[in-house]
Amino acid sequence: MNTVDFDRYDHVRPIRWTGEVLELLDQRVLPFETFYRRLHTFDEVAAAIRDLVVRGAPAIGISAAWGVVLAAKQVSAGDGQAALKQLQPAFDVLNASRPTAVNLAWALGRMRAVLAKSGSDWLSALEQEALAIATEDLAANRLMGRAGAELIDVGSGVLTHCNTGSLATAGFGTALGVIRAGVAEGRIDKVFAGETRPWNQGARLTVWELQEDGIPATLIADAAAAHLMKTGQVQWVVVGADRICANGDTANKIGTYQLAIAARHHGVKVMVVAPSSTVDMDTASGEHIEIEERDPGELLTALGKRTVAEGIVAWNPVFDVTPHDLIDAIVTERGVILSPDETGMRAVFGTP
Ligand SMILES: CSC[C@@H](O)[C@@H](O)C(=O)COP(=O)(O)O
Description:
Layout: E1 15-17, E2 22-25, E3 36-39, H1 42-50, H2 57-72, H3 80-95, H4 103-116, H5 122-149, E4 156-160, H6 175-184, E5 188-194, H7 201-213, E6 218-220, H8 225-230, E7 236-239, E8 243-245, E9 250-253, H9 256-266, E10 269-273, E11 279-280, H10 297-300, E12 301-302, E13 305-306, E14 319-322, E15 329-331, E16 336-338, H11 342-349
Parallel strand pairs: 4-5, 4-7, 5-6, 7-10, 8-11, 10-15
Antiparallel strand pairs: 1-2, 2-3, 8-9, 9-14, 12-13, 15-16
Helix pairs in contact: 1-2, 1-3, 2-3, 2-4, 2-5, 3-4, 4-5, 5-6
The chain binds 5-S-methyl-1-O-phosphono-5-thio-D-ribulose (MRU).
5-S-methyl-1-O-phosphono-5-thio-D-ribulose binds next to helix 2 and strand 9.
């Protein structure tokens, strides 16, 4: 088996901290423009998360953490507790920027906990914590890449959905990390990516990232997935997650649920790859997850041009929940849970 040269995949970084400002690679204009937006305030960070300048569960958590640092730079306080009081509005605005991915609340929780126990050095403690959140995410992705690839037999084809790569994380990616590792190790022969309508994360971001790596990938229409499975070209669906509940139910980009149903019908396996920052053991099952609904305009237009007759009504939920019994493996940096259920999740993530 070949080894994985992780440094080869480190060139796309969606989030850069200069020490003064946050620079976000604007994912709305990729793949044709590579443009870093410079953000100076927490309000700008919240707007960037809401408007999908930055997206992907781990990446929005990391960005929110840096948003807290930007807010903190405007505050003068003697210790962390005093700063926390003044920073509460910033925490609230950042937390409300998107509802489904738990990584956002998780990262803000870490920043809040650091403040609560810091003395006069609270600002540098916050900065170090934001850096640690990003560094740990990259390390988790590399671990998961290897662990997930081990489940894949040599000669397999895989289908992925949305974008779970360097762009959605601190680097390397979750599901795309498994695909990178699986290709490097010689296990994966063919990679397919669904377009991921309506925002086209698969078409605009995933196949571009793979092309940058020199990994051949084939784009399919989302509607072609069941037919792809029927033709025997894929053995695994490999996806990321925005929130994994205590029983293994998983929220991910809209369309994941129907992929899992089609996969079960065709004997194709489903792997969910996500760091522990995506695991929400306080939410018992998927029915309690808030599903973000975005502007129906995303469905009524393409490249800013209206494609649907005036007066048409559209509904645009952007995540769905895959029940745990349709998932074959959940891969995290803390462990792999096969045929996940509450017992398997608790064995890795603990009891309440
Ligand atoms: C490593 S990213 C995992 C998920 O966040 C990803 O699959 C996804 O659904 C992203 O949705 P998005 O709306 O693009 O933020």
